Amino acid sequence: MIKTVVVLAVAAMIAAFTAVIFSLDAVAKARGEKAPAAVATPAPAESHDNPGSGSLTSYAGAKPANADELAAAHKPFPAELPPIPAGDVVDVKMVLKDITVELAPGVEYTAWGFEGGVPGPTVHVREGQTVRMTLVNGGAIPHSIDFHAARIAPDVAFRDVAPGESLTYEFVAKDPGVYMYHCGTKPVLAHIANGMYGAIVVSPAKPLPKADKEYVLVGGEFYLNGDGLEQPAAYDVGKAHAQMPDWVVFNGYAGQYATHPLTAEPNDLVRFYVVAAGPSLDVDFHVVGTIFDTVYPFQDMDPARALHGVQTFPVPAGGGAVFDMRIPDEGIYPFVSHSFASVDLGMVGLLKVGNPKGSASH
Ligand SMILES: [Cu+2]
Prior knowledge:
With 362 residues, the protein is an alpha+beta fold. The protein has 2 domains: 169 residues, Immunoglobulin-like; 115 residues, Cupredoxins -  blue copper proteins (Immunoglobulin-like). It is built from 7 helices and 19 strands. The protein is globular, with a radius of gyration of 20 Å. The structure holds copper (II) ion.
């Protein structure tokens, strides 16, 4: 009897996983059948308000013939929480560059990248450490960096840095949690939409229960003025205002942890740090097939204010939250924003627990 229940449960999970992946593929196929959209000319990097086609044409799911190959070859953004550097002061240096990123298999976008990628690198410090931030502007227009973990005068610390210049400021990380950082230069919508964001984790001085696996996910969405297949697409302000993204992603690339799953062993304490960078969408974080044992809501990592036994928890745009779970059974557990339009647009990954039948060994 118990065996039957377990088999049924596993079958249900596989079905859920397949459905999620299938939905992505179905969207891609549906889009592929449309007449090809006119190829828009990417805006120059200095343009803030590229109107795009003005038609709000969706380029969701666009993919080249070799998309599966490209997805397999893609090197996923490292989701693992990096270690905390030693010392009282943590030096963080980022060089901003105008870059072209791949945000889905074969889909290119002209972005502004902190330290050469979208999202920027994950910063990890302990409560009480001082962050000494240096931003070097290697781009074509002014930029800045705003840390939500800082209590600091923004007109001083978060001020614009001209091209070719740099800025250094310090703040003490006094408030444990997971926070967004981003460019705060106007129009902020464009600077975030172009990829200028990342996560900082401030671990509490009094540690939480030790996790076996710790992963950082930064949610973000892209608004494209073309499909990005023949030439890189650029930011479409009309679609950003309408909140009609073409792609919604974890850590800068659609579905990258579906083809390259994150891993854990059965009964591991798995901790996800989730930031919703937006610019505009929330992440309604959910892991299919489990219930969060603990959620530290709105990034507040005080156990006294934690929630327990939670199915889905919303991470607001510009916010963060921490999710603890223990999964006893081997299997493939999808993680998503349960606002399911986001799943269709690329916001889905997999957590492979143990070495379930039918999956590659690790
Ligand atoms: Cu910027």
